[in-house]
């Protein structure tokens, strides 16, 4: 999320007659970008300004999505017409949202590790696994908050470490409750 992404279109020829990107996002309606070489014209239908050709379509058929968000998830199909034949490629764009990590002590002296608003849901683990509970809360935007509460069974342990595992990265934090 927030990065730019470039989707390449299969092209086995230096001569493009026609090029179309058909986009079906999970959120909102479909859109398309088209290019005709014989008239050197482009056409845009219902696409946001964040989606455009990487360069000029007569030079490169690649699509660039700037500041990718969850709303851009979906299917992207490129169709190229050349003198050598027709070619197409399809992508399914999945957006990763790194969770926000917080580690704190609750009112009972238990360590609480929270990975907020990640996509997909993060996995949490405690360095010294004791008695822990796990809760998940789904949000309307497709992200999930995962919360783990470590019940203090051994008072001789002063530092507790929570590790968050996520496709966008892994993080660890320690706390003494």
Explain what this protein looks like in three dimensions:
Keywords: Disulfide bond, Glycoprotein, Membrane, Receptor, Transmembrane, Transmembrane helix. This is MOR1B protein. Its main location: membrane. It is found in: Membrane. Belongs to the CD200R family. With 177 residues, the protein is mainly beta. It folds into 2 domains: 5-93, Immunoglobulin-like, CATH 2.60.40; 100-176, Immunoglobulins (Immunoglobulin-like, Sandwich), CATH 2.60.40. 0% of the residues lie in helices and 53% in strands. It is built from no helices and 15 strands. It has strands at 5-7, 18-25, 31-36, 41-45, 51-53, 63-65, 74-82, 85-93, 100-105, 111-118, 123-126, 131-138, 144-151, 160-166, 169-175. The strands form 4 sheets. Strands 4-3-2-7-8 form a 5-stranded antiparallel beta sheet, with no helix packed on it. It has a 4-stranded antiparallel beta sheet with strand order 9-10-13-12, with no helix packed on it. The radius of gyration is 23 Å and the shape is elongated.
SSE layout and pairing:
Blueprint: E1 5-7, E2 18-25, E3 31-36, E4 41-45, E5 51-53, E6 63-65, E7 74-82, E8 85-93, E9 100-105, E10 111-118, E11 123-126, E12 131-138, E13 144-151, E14 160-166, E15 169-175
Antiparallel strand pairs: 1-6, 2-3, 2-7, 3-4, 5-6, 7-8, 9-10, 10-13, 11-14, 12-13, 14-15
